[in-house]
Known about the structure:
This protein is of the alpha/beta class and 375 residues long. The chain is built from 12 helices and 13 strands.
Amino acid sequence: MPENVRLRCCECGASVHADQPVWRCECGGLLDLAFDLHFDPRQLSGRRPTMWRYRAALPLAAATEPVSYDEGFTPLLECDIHGRTVHIKQEHLFQTGSYKDRGASVLMTKAKELGVREVVEDSSGNAGCAIAAYGAAANITCHIYVPADTSAAKLAQIQAYGAILHRIPGSRSDTARAAMAAAQEIYYASHSWNPFFLQGTKTFAYEVCEQLGWRAPDALVVPAGNGTLLLGAWLGFEELCQAGHIQALPRLIAVQATNCAPLAQAYQRQADELSAVEAKHTLAEGIAIANPVRGSQVLAAVRTSGGHFVTVTEDEIVAAFRLMGRRGHYIEPTSAATIAGLEKYVGTTTSEGLIVSVLTGHGLKSTDKLLGHLL
Length: 375
Ligand SMILES: *Cc1c(COP(=O)(O)O)cnc(C)c1O
Ligand SMILES: [Zn+2]
């Protein structure tokens, strides 16, 4: 088990023991986790094929029972993209239909360990679904804040798990503000703020490396809204590399929708911080994040990895959705955006190495939008 687990502020450097139910520093800064890690792949043999096989790498108390639906170890499918074989991880096959289950499983396990009885979360839909589902397993009351125009299927799903749904008029940022106000009183199980979420998504990297025989891909093509998959995966690859379990880190290729691309624009300007962007509507609702909380961390990770950003238009998203559907993959538009970005990357890169990408969310989650725009 990891030792000396502390929450450390990215702004002022203050730190508190992780047995405190805090999600933000007193100064308002983002918190990251710091701990001593002892993980050895040789301990994995005989463990069940779920993300909890990497429990030794997760900063939770030894006595803590996971809040789990046996999630993880999703297939890494070989797929032909423009004549090139790439590996695509099937993260839409989770309990709630998106990779957010990784983060929600660890975060709600931590919330239960802390004795939290009630949480608040805001999302464009999928993180809310995941927190609600794991709230049901943990017997924790969940208040889920979503923009009023979120896909109807996600609204139904959140309520099916017994969570209390708050539909907020206006933009995604208005929803975030409403949740933040509620979080004055209630523990904020935020996928963007709470660093335990990233401990869950980091198991993505552990799985990919194990599935490839303890090596990292040369490039990882992932969507970036708040960057919870990107940052979690990067954390995992870094941990494995530092411990010598893999020899090199992947280049991170981050995909944004042209209509909402604050990270790609900042990267283009070679800026370390984001500035306000005009966010237009995009089919890729899962990455329509105008003001990502961990934006400068995402920029730093992509830059350090030697990767870059790719932006995709609405037409390209529709084309990628159709391509994947004809191949038997029913995915949500946000996942189609990633595939559109993957196609662009494959079409332009001169590097020969192994490429891994991901299907992040299931098509059944956005039936209403698909009927309206894509079929
Ligand atoms: C949340 C989500 C994303 C993007 O994740 P970020 O953490 O915002 O980068 C991509 N696809 C789907 C289906 C999602 O639910
Ligand atoms: Zn601080």
